[in-house]
Amino acid sequence: LPGETKERWENDLRQAVSLNVEHISAYHLIYEEDTPIYNMLKQHQISEVDEDSSLDFFTLLIEHLQKAGFEHYEISNFCRPDKYSRHNSSYWKGIPYLGCGPSAHSFDGMTREWNVSSIDTYIKGIEEDSRAFEIEYLDQTTRYNEFIITTIRTVWGTPIEKLKQMFGNEMWEYCQRMAAPYLKNGKLEEHDGALRLTRESIFISDSIMSDLLWVD
């Protein structure tokens, strides 16, 4: 948050742990346009946390929660043993899901669709047996890139054999080739048949993901 300090952050972490919750998600604040806090930022009433401080806070987050018995199972998510978020884990593992209601999204592995946002239009479509929605057909490149982005950010990593089965030898070999330098320098590791980030590479995960993506 704006004005965050090490002392306040550590106090927040202690309080979170003391509540005996089973799951904690922690994300860097995003300033969305047309919100009061965004306007405050643009008017210089507040300032964003600088990158070095953000890195320090993230390090403290990992250390405090792991010491308290939480598993760091996704870049921004921590849980007590076996208390993974079933909702978000379905996204990270590519499990199909059905969204019901206005603006709801659905995914079946090959397509992604989303219902119209207007409640009135949505209800009218349901009543007339003609649901109002848009659909996106995912080509192989998109599916491969999403597979990399969603799997490598978790403790389970990107399953190598599954990648080969889903996307063929060419993309599998490409992934292996692009991952090789990171495996050599310890930023990636192979564990239980999967590529996964090491502790130190979590801080540069975006650049690693970017290198593994397929660009036509």
Poorly predicted segments: none
Lateral arrangement of strands in the main beta sheet: 1-3-2
- In N-to-C order, the SSE pattern is HEHHEEHEEHEHEHEEH
The tally of strands reads 9
Q: What is the molecular shape?
A: globular
**What portion of residues belong to β-strands?**
15-25%
- Distance separating the two termini: 38 Å
What does the model show?
The protein has 216 residues and is an alpha+beta fold. Helix content is 45%, strand content 15%. It is built from eight helices and nine strands. The protein has helices at 6-18, 36-42, 51-67, 86-92, 119-127, 140-151, 160-184, 205-212; strands at residues 23-25, 71-74, 77-79, 105-107, 111-115, 133-137, 158-159, 188-191, 194-197. Strands 1-3-2 form a three-stranded antiparallel beta sheet, covered by helices on one side. It has a three-stranded antiparallel beta sheet with strand order 4-5-6, with no helix packed on it. Helix 1 (6-18) packs parallel to helix 3. The longest helix is centred in the C-terminal third of the chain and has 25 residues, at 160-184. The two termini are 38 Å apart.
In short:
The chain is α+β, with helices and mostly antiparallel strands.
How are the SSEs placed, and which strands pair?
Elements: H1 6-18, E1 23-25, H2 36-42, H3 51-67, E2 71-74, E3 77-79, H4 86-92, E4 105-107, E5 111-115, H5 119-127, E6 133-137, H6 140-151, E7 158-159, H7 160-184, E8 188-191, E9 194-197, H8 205-212
Helix pairs in contact: 1-3
